[in-house]
Amino acid sequence: MFKIVKARDYDDMSRKAANIISAQVILKPDCVLGLATGSTPIGAYHQLIEWYKKGDVDFSQVSTYNLDEYRGLTHDDPQSYHFFMRDNFFDHINIDLANTHVPDGSNPDADAACSEYDKMVAEAGYPDLQLLGIGNNGHIGFNEPDDHFSKGTHCVDLTESTIKANSRLFEREEDVPRQAYTMGVQTIMYARMILVVANGAAKAQAVHDMCFGPVTPSCPASILQLHPNVVVVADTEALALCE
Ligand code: PGA
Question: What is the chain's Cα-based Rg?
Answer without folding.
Answer: 17
